[in-house]
Design goal:
By secondary structure, this protein is an alpha/beta fold. The chain is 35% helix and 18% strand. The protein has a six-stranded parallel β-sheet, sandwiched between helices.
């Protein structure tokens, strides 16, 4: 961690008036949520192309259900970390206008953020895949079918499905109006979300533990823990 880089980020964020934050799996990892894309993530054990798909939902529901049930059960004991809390405070003081997240875990909302757009949906709400009727967590966990005979699923975006248009439009509008866009905990490998930061004419800051290959597009890059970095920046902002 380079102190001058931290100070530069703190200076930009301290005077931001329309800050937009984009978070990925690496942001939730420090709360204990497993990720997929890092060298230590679940990609090494489970190929999501075989499970996070409509085909798995329709034709291999046992695999689909087992995978997501495990994730849901783990989230019951998962709490937001101090980085989540800092973003909640930034929203309260009027600096943070919107969080766009690739995460489906709802931890930003648990930490108090209300201006959250879930680009990949939510694992905390459910519906019938066939008729669209709203479902409940315990119905999904119990592997109970809808009255129409369809499979219950979390409201996540599976591979091959379109992103929610409302969340996408609200995010793109906010990023175009932003004076600072802060990108954290994402490898920027998943399209089309990886295009979002570059819609801004404001300052671009990247905080990520691992290289993304896109560092040259950012004004400030910090390769370190999200929690450690946000904590240090927040402290510098108060000076």
């Amino acid at each position: 961690m380079v102190i001058n880089t931290l100070q530069a980020a703190a200076q930009k964020l301290k005077f931001a008036r329309h800050l937009v934050v984009l978070t990925g799996a690496g942001f939730s990892v420090e709360s204990g949520v497993p990720d997929f894309r890092s060298s230590r993530g679940w990609w090494r054990q489970i190929d999501p192309v075989t499970v996070a798909t409509v085909d798995a939902l329709e034709y291999n529901y046992n695999l689909f259900h087992g995978f997501y049930s495990t994730r849901i059960e783990k989230l019951k004991t998962t709490k937001p970390h101090s980085g989540h809390q800092i973003l909640g405070e930034w929203e309260m003081d009027g600096r943070l206008r919107l969080i766009a997240t690739q995460n489906v875990d709802g931890l930003h909302q648990q930490a108090g953020n209300e201006r959250v757009q879930e680009l990949h949906g939510s694992i905390r709400t459910y519906r019938c895949h066939r008729c669209g009727m709203k479902g409940e967590q315990e119905i999904f966990l119990g592997k109970i079918r809808c009255s129409c005979g369809g499979n219950i699923r979390p409201n996540i975006i599976l591979f091959g499905e379109s992103l929610p248009s409302d969340a996408w439009e609200r995010t793109t509008e906010a990023i175009r109006d932003a004076d600072v866009v802060l990108v954290m905990g994402t490898s920027l490998q998943v399209s089309p979300v990886n295009q979002l930061p570059f819609l801004t004419t404001g300052d671009l800051i990247l905080i990520n533990k691992e290289p993304t290959g896109l560092e040259h597009h950012f004004d400030i890059v910090i390769q370190d823990s999200v929690v450690r970095t946000l904590t240090a920046i927040d402290q510098l902002m108060s000076i």
